[in-house]
UniProtKB/TrEMBL annotation:
Belongs to the biotin--protein ligase family. This is Bifunctional ligase/repressor BirA. The gene is birA. Keywords: ATP-binding, Biotin, DNA-binding, Ligase, Nucleotide-binding, Repressor, Transcription, Transcription regulation. It catalyses: biotin + L-lysyl-[protein] + ATP = N(6)-biotinyl-L-lysyl-[protein] + AMP + diphosphate + H(+). The chain holds residues 70 to 323 of 324 of the full protein. Acts both as a biotin--[acetyl-CoA-carboxylase] ligase and a repressor. Its EC number is 6.3.4.15. Residues 1-189 form the BPL/LPL catalytic domain. It comes from Methylomusa anaerophila. Biotin binds at residues 21-23, 45, 49-51, 116.
Length: 254
């Protein structure tokens, strides 16, 4: 029932009932020379990681905790293209297959009614001006019951089951994501990144909103007006337009 129709994505699959973090394992495999498209997927993670040194709740058998290894032929400055394309690809599948009208919060969270359905953690290794590998890690909250979320997460996270009332076959869902990812990646490599950007814009729930930008040592607010080709968010403030890089900031609606 779950048929993989991809040529690159998921041609090698490392499956673990339990692991520390699929991103860590994927980075090891990537450093060891595994082929592009290799994925690591686990039923549960003991030390799942999120952005900004946060953890990631990864209950057994309830989500898709997955990392994919890419070797994009472009400069490290363009690596965020991979993240943006991943967000667009996953959001498409959620809308089409799960029928949930989710949106993308910059840089790469997928939310439904303000709560997180998917988190994406991209990590890169580069030397000089060439990318060695990019690992895209995705945490997709699929069949988690509302009451299973620990207290501190319950306010900010949700799952496809909680919002749609339906259980989803994770293997079918993963196959659909890999297919969509492959299509998007092909587009990015053949000069079609602007169409990915357009999709990102149309699926974004950040653009057009007033946001607080919160960094380690600064904080300001403004209107999110666009993203640029490098995936930076452009925020219009009283002092002018500021370019926000995903690195170590978070944003939230004002
Ligand atoms: C975030 O929203 O902060 C990003 C969360 C990314 C979680 C996924 S789960 C699979 C992969 N392995 C990890 O340790 N993290 C990512």
């Amino acid at each position: 029932k779950a048929v993989l129709t991809t040529k690159v994505m998921g041609q090698e699959i490392y499956y673990y009932p339990q692991i520390g973090s699929t991103n860590n394992e994927a980075k090891k495999l990537a450093a060891g020379g595994c082929p592009e498209g290799t994925i690591v997927v686990a039923e549960t993670q003991n030390t799942g990681r999120g952005r900004l040194a946060r953890g990631w709740f990864s209950p057994y058998g309830k989500g898709i905790w997955m990392s994919v290894v890419l070797r994009p032929p472009f400069s490290p400055l363009e690596a965020s293209k991979c993240t943006l394309m991943a967000a667009v690809a996953v959001n498409r599948v959620i809308r089409q297959v799960a029928g949930v009208y989710s949106g993308i919060k910059w840089p790469n969270d997928i939310l439904f009614q303000g709560r997180k359905l998917v988190g994406i953690l991209t990590e890169m290794s580069a030397e000089m001006d060439a990318i060695n590998y990019v690992v895209i890690g995705m945490g997709i909250n699929v069949n988690i019951e509302e009451r299973e979320f620990p207290g501190e997460i319950a306010a900010t996270a949700t799952s496809l089951l909680a919002v749609s009332g339906r259980e989803i076959d994770r293997r079918m869902f993963l196959a659909a994501i890999l297919k969509e990812l492959e299509t998007a990646y092909h587009l990015v490599q053949t000069g079609g990144f602007t169409s990915i950007l357009d999709d990102w814009r149309s699926q974004s729930i950040t653009l057009g909103k007033n946001v607080d930008v919160i960094g380690p040592d600064h904080r300001y607010s403004g209107l999110a007006i666009d993203i640029d080709n490098e995936g930076a968010l452009l925020v219009k403030t009283a002092q002018g337009v500021r370019k926000v890089l995903a690195g170590d900031v978070s944003i939230r609606p004002v």
